[in-house]
């Protein structure tokens, strides 16, 4: 009887923690930096894909449907990357600036990709050129973060 009650309590506790959506602390700076590398790599990939799509739109090499789908997919992918990394608590105060830099860059990527999607849907050449400039700047930011993470 005691074992069953203890098992039920343990199960309830585990379920409570799993469903609470709490911030997970990284075990150490190495683990946190590894999470940052993953977020930066994924963000860079989505942003680079969006920039390539915009280049192809500007060169009139893709259909509107392909551009819309591709840019929407990139935009849909950035949010979960940002959310997932944002839920990892830095283990030390010295990692706070890395967290801020990664989240800021992911946010900039999200904005630039959304701007590109909107401009593509509106067939706004000037907006697409500005979006490409913004995407290129975010790519540079991601590459600098990536270099800093080794």
Descriptive account of the structure:
The chain is an all-alpha fold and 150 residues long. It contains five helices and two strands. The chain has helices spanning 2-19, 29-58, 64-86, 96-122, 125-149; strands spanning 24-25, 88-89. It has a two-stranded parallel sheet. Helix 4 runs antiparallel to helix 5.
Q: For the record, what CATH class applies?
A: Mainly Alpha
The count of β-strands is 2
How many domains, as an integer? Answer: 1
CATH topology: Four Helix Bundle (Hemerythrin (Met), subunit A)
Structural class: mainly alpha
Oligomer: single chain
CATH architecture: Up-down Bundle
End-to-end C-alpha gap? 54 Å
Most strands sheet: 2 strands, parallel
Task: Give me the side-by-side strand order of the main sheet.
Answer: 1-2
Overall mean pLDDT: 87
Tally of individual helices:
5
- Give helix % range: over 70%
Provide keyphrases for this structure.
150 residues, mainly alpha, Four Helix Bundle (Hemerythrin (Met), subunit A), two-stranded parallel ribbon, 82% helix, disordered N terminus
Write the layout of secondary structure elements.
Elements: H1 2-19, E1 24-25, H2 29-58, H3 64-86, E2 88-89, H4 96-122, H5 125-149
Parallel strand pairs: 1-2
Helix pairs in contact: 2-3, 2-4, 2-5, 3-4, 4-5
Question: What is the compact description of this entry?
Answer:
The protein is mainly α. The protein is 82% helix and 3% strand. The protein has a single domain (23-149), classed as Four Helix Bundle (Hemerythrin (Met), subunit A) (Up-down Bundle), CATH 1.20.120.
